[in-house]
Design brief:
Layout lengths: L1 H20 L3 H16 L3 H15 L5 H34 L6 E5 L2 H10 L4 H13 L4 E3 L4 E5 H7 L4 H14 L2 H10 L1
Parallel strand pairs: 1-3
Antiparallel strand pairs: 2-3
Helix pairs in contact: 1-4, 1-8, 2-4, 3-4, 4-7, 4-8, 5-6
Length: 191
């Protein structure tokens, strides 16, 4: 049990770090290079299958470059879905291993589900308004409602490569439960 607690804590810490790093342009560039390398590292058969799927998705009039780009994007999306699921599992294991940590995870796949979950949340009117604006602009990936509920828009998280969003929102939840707003601001300033 202790090993699972430590492993979960390490995974959550690593994933929360990923969430912040994903925001930087340099990290995004590196991420794109790794996805391309991963795609190119596949067997010829796997790449041809990916090209076929991409062409079917785009239609016969797509250029070879458009097909290649779509195939790589589909490869990235598949990898990101896997990483996001692993992150969710790590966060859930972390929550389960901590006595007294009362955090609920709500997962949504699209804007309509996100809007419904946010409107049902315990978040303040201001936070709800900000979240709804983020949905309208396509920027919403997740938030913590102030009462221990984490809402994650997996569709947008995958689109934006925010695979550490579960750990990121868990950190908000823990900070909100342990620190006052002023203390959080002071910690943020020190970082």
């Amino acid at each position: 049990r202790m090993g699972k607690k430590i492993n979960s804590a390490l995974n959550v810490n690593f994933e929360s770090t990923l969430a912040y790093k994903q925001y930087t342009e340099a990290q995004q560039d590196l991420r794109v290079k790794r996805v391309i390398q991963s795609f190119e590292g596949q067997s010829s058969r796997e790449k041809q299958s990916a090209y076929r799927q991409a062409r079917e998705s785009l239609g016969d009039k797509a250029t070879d470059e458009q097909v290649r780009s779509k195939a790589i994007d589909m490869h990235r999306e598949k990898a990101d879905k896997k990483l996001l699921a692993e992150g969710k599992e790590s966060v859930q294991n972390y929550i389960n291993s901590r006595d007294g940590l009362d955090v609920k995870i709500v997962t949504v796949q699209n804007d309509a589900e996100a809007i419904a979950a946010i409107n049902e949340s315990a978040a303040s009117a201001e936070t709800i308004t900000e979240a709804l604006e983020a949905i309208a602009s396509g920027e919403f990936t997740g938030f913590e409602d102030g009462s221990g509920t984490i809402i994650v828009h997996e569709g947008n998280a995958v689109k934006k490569g925010k695979v550490g969003v579960y750990a990121h929102e868990l950190l908000h939840s823990v900070a909100n439960s342990k620190l006052s707003e002023e203390s959080q601001a002071a910690v943020g300033d020190q970082l």
